[in-house]
């Protein structure tokens, strides 16, 4: 058959497909099993968070941020709180104990998010066992969060001016036990996947993107570090108590699905390193600024604008807020990493096999609560 006789097939993948994370639709142009072009379609989970923010007070919007990347709610709370605190000009007045607690819950949520990612990414590719191993340790983290805020998914814990309440002795006991056992549990994940022949064939040299292209597409987080860029906002633009803590930024130059997997695996151990330092260094003191102890007191920042950000498990989450001096934002724009990464997907899978699409989607850790905001 001549090349002129080959017909291009248009195929819808998702939004019902389980490996497109439930609400991503890809319109694939296929030549046999080779992908010639891809058109991502998002918006199936759209709930209008940005417009909601413009019709709610600054305090009222905090629990809404939980619903962005709903597997990294603590990190979402933190990025939003930082943005409002910058707008108020009080970012240097947050109690030191609160800053350490913010780091602790953010790093625990990073590990929990990465564990969920390893579990579901492996499941997408065909490995079932890691799912049960990863949820074993994730459950321990969720127990810790339940201890300090009463919730297991959407926490509303990090608040403007500090955190909702102090951590408990039981939380500290659970945390110390967790950091003690996790490195050995981490070795079990490595045993299951890192040198597994099938895993290597499904992930190495798949979905390759160079550091230059990743930067041009606006990719951040583990996906960027998987292309060799040593860029982490916790190091380059420190916030909370990160400037007082020592940790490394894992990165791998290959830029493929396997490199992005290795970055997240290494990041979990770095998070443990951060948590160990927090246990030793956390000071006594208040956990909330006096001005914000009463949640009913309306916040009215001066007219102006601010951009607050955090290094979330999936990448840079940012909030751009414009204030007119009222108790609610005039405008809010959320810079969500999943939205950016979804539109880099066609570049990464062009020329790949259809079977590789699931592996590449999983390697970006897309969460559509924040993409379809």
How would you characterize this protein structure?
- This protein is an alpha+beta fold.
- The protein has one domain: Orthogonal Bundle (Cytochrome-c3 Hydrogenase, chain B), CATH 1.10.645.10.
- The chain is 47% helix and 13% strand.
- The strands form 3 sheets. Strands 1-2-3 form a 3-stranded antiparallel sheet. It has a 3-stranded antiparallel sheet with strand order 6-7-8. Strands 4-5 form a two-stranded antiparallel ribbon.
- Helix 3 packs antiparallel against helix 4, helix 4 runs antiparallel to helix 5 and helix 12 runs antiparallel to helix 13.
- The radius of gyration is 21 Å and the shape is globular.
- The model has no long low-confidence stretch (mean pLDDT 94).
Give me the secondary-structure topology.
Layout: E1 9-13, E2 25-31, E3 34-41, H1 49-53, H2 58-65, H3 73-88, H4 96-125, H5 129-149, E4 158-159, E5 162-163, H6 169-193, H7 197-203, H8 211-216, H9 222-225, H10 233-236, H11 257-281, E6 304-312, E7 315-323, E8 331-335, H12 337-349, H13 356-364, H14 368-371
Antiparallel strand pairs: 1-2, 2-3, 4-5, 6-7, 7-8
Index terms:
13% strand; 3-stranded antiparallel sheet; globular; single chain; Cytochrome-c3 Hydrogenase, chain B; 373 residues; alpha+beta
- Alpha-carbon distance between the two ends: 47 Å
Main beta sheet strand tally, sense and closure: 3 strands, antiparallel
Shape: globular
**Total domain count:** 1
Main structural class: alpha+beta
The CATH class is identified as Mainly Alpha
Q: Per CATH, which architecture?
A: Orthogonal Bundle
Strand order of the largest sheet: 1-2-3
SS field, number of helical segments: 14
Strand content: 5-15%
- Radius of gyration from CA coordinates: 21 Å
Q: What's the average pLDDT? A: 94
Percentage of residues in helical conformation: 40-55%
| Low-confidence blocks of residues | none
* Fourth-tier CATH superfamily name: Cytochrome-c3 Hydrogenase, chain B
Count every beta strand, where a strand is a DSSP E run of 2 or more residues: 8
Assign the CATH topology: Cytochrome-c3 Hydrogenase, chain B
Order of helices and strands: EEEHHHHHEEHHHHHHEEEHHH
